[in-house]
Design goal:
It is built from 3 helices and 9 strands; from the N terminus they run αβββββββαββα. It has about 180 residues and is α+β, with helices and mostly antiparallel strands. The chain has a domain at about 55-175: Immunoglobulin-like. A 9-stranded antiparallel beta sheet has the order 1-2-3-4-7-6-5-8-9. Strand 3 (about 80-85) and strand 4 (about 90-95) form a beta hairpin. The longest helix has 18 residues, at about 1-20.
């Protein structure tokens, strides 16, 4: 009779285990998602020479009318250029961007700052330009600025350009 008691106990245990309530884990409190932190905007440098150099590089273009030094991420889209006009004996400073009328164009080098009045030129692409004599001292200041120079036009991003040999070459080729 022992086997019957064991069988009866096993059956009773099986029946009772089927009646047990399944325990669910307590709900976990989910924190609401945090908003993304605001981007940290670096304050402008105290000195323009501490600002990072603008993205891009200089390209020297030997053109029949006179050489050009163009700065940008590609040859076809310069942000800034110095173009020699040999026949006129001048260098044209060109800054990509549009303007409704005449605007000041300031060039700052390690030896000083100079401001010009640039006019819109939409012949090829929207830009402002100013023509200066090829022997103007500001061209020497740009070419020999220690490491970089700055070009500012109101309404356009300020350019911090490296003083690479392409600039000096255009100035010397134009004289």
């Amino acid at each position: 009779m022992k086997p019957h008691r064991l069988l009866l106990c096993a059956t009773a245990l099986a029946v009772l285990s089927g009646c047990a309530v399944e325990r669910k884990p307590p709900p976990v409190a989910v924190a609401p998602p945090r908003p993304a932190p605001a981007p940290i905007v670096a304050p402008p440098p105290a000195d323009w020479r501490d600002a990072p150099v603008s993205a891009g590089g200089w390209f020297y273009l030997a053109e029949p009318a006179g050489p050009t030094a163009a700065f940008g991420t590609g040859v076809g889209q310069p942000l800034f250029a110095l173009r020699c006009e040999r026949n006129a004996g001048r260098v044209v400073l060109r800054r990509a961007g549009s303007a409704a009328g005449s605007v000041p164009l300031s060039v700052t080098t390690t030896s000083g700052s100079r401001s010009f009045t640039a006019v819109p030129d939409v012949a090829a692409a929207p830009e402002v330009s100013v023509a200066i004599p090829a022997r103007d001292a500001v061209l020497d200041a740009i070419a020999f600025s220690r490491g970089r120079f700055m070009v500012e036009v109101p309404g356009l991003p300020t350019l911090y350009l490296p003083a690479w040999p392409e600039v000096a070459r255009v100035v010397e080729d134009c004289r």
